[in-house]
Specification:
Structural class: mainly alpha
Number of domains: 1
């Protein structure tokens, strides 16, 4: 019984530590297209998936609203380089970084517009 409770507590704690990413809407894509002309909802969704799959391999995901555009533009290239130095040598190329950045920058402004 104690092991089961400990297991449930640990899973709950780990789940609570990760950022819950908002569901993307057309309003998000429209807002993002003001900064990135031609940005679509599919582009944002792809950026979110790339963010989840690449960044979560090394650390818990951050809520996009936890940083602004200037901060994300510093963090993402730094983390991409760090990921490449890790044992798995995963390369996050410039195109992938840009998709992640467009998602994070657009999502970082979500609370400001609502």
């Amino acid at each position: 019984m104690k092991k089961t409770l400990l297991y449930i507590f640990t899973i709950s704690l780990l789940t609570a530590c990760g950022a819950k990413l908002a569901v993307l809407t057309q309003a998000d894509a429209d807002r993002g297209a003001q900064k990135f002309p031609g940005l679509t909802l599919n582009d944002l969704a792809e950026g979110q998936i790339l963010y989840k799959t690449n960044c979560s391999q090394c650390h818990p995901l951050k809520n996009p609203t936890s940083r602004d555009e200037v901060q994300w533009r510093k963090v993402v290239p730094k983390m991409a380089a760090k990921a490449e130095r890790k044992a798995n040598k995963k390369k996050i190329d410039g195109v992938t970084q840009e998709k992640i950045l467009k998602y994070l920058i657009t999502a970082s402004t979500a609370s400001a517009s609502k």
